[in-house]
Design brief:
This protein is of the alpha+beta class and about 140 residues long. It contains 1 helix and 8 strands; from the N terminus they run H-E-E-E-E-E-E-E-E. It has one domain: Crystallins (Gamma-B Crystallin, domain 1), CATH 2.60.20.10. The chain is about 15% helix and about 30% strand.
């Protein structure tokens, strides 16, 4: 009986391995932070550590509901610091507008940055920025 079971397992294991290798494994969408612009879905948005687009920066190409996990990536003032509540300016390198929020989850006071526009010093979210998203704004957002 044991020999029959072994033969069955030996026959089935290659089939299982083959099926596992062809089943696609999907990963969740990511904000794709980086040091250069990968256009992604909307274009790119760059957070800077200092005002006037100075210091370390990080690019994003997707919505981010909580900036806590992300840091400034390039060399310069602020490199390695968390982006959440530390960005002073941004550059929107996209063909659509984006909105930065004071709180995580797209809540609180906000700044909207028009397409292809820089905000050299954020207004409502200066060093108090926790999330951002594309193509959405509110009437009470400061507009750059």
């Amino acid at each position: 009986m044991m020999t029959r079971l072994k033969k069955s397992l030996v026959a089935v294991l290659p089939l299982v391995a083959a099926l596992v290798s062809i089943v696609p494994i999907s990963t969740p969408a990511s904000a794709a932070p980086g040091t250069s612009c990968d256009p992604g879905t909307y274009g790119c948005m760059r957070f800077f550590y200092n005002s006037n687009r100075a210091g370390s920066y990080t690019y994003f190409n997707a919505n981010v509901s909580d900036l806590a996990p992300y840091t400034f990536l390039t060399s310069g003032s602020g490199q390695g610091q968390g982006i959440k509540n530390n960005a002073a300016s941004v550059l929107n390198n996209a063909s659509t507008f984006m909105t930065i929020y004071y709180n995580s989850g797209y809540a609180g006071p906000c700044d909207t940055v028009e397409s292809w526009t820089a905000a050299d010093q954020l207004h409502h979210t200066y060093n108090q920025n926790a999330s951002f998203r594309w193509n959405y704004t509110r009437s009470d957002c400061y507009v750059f």
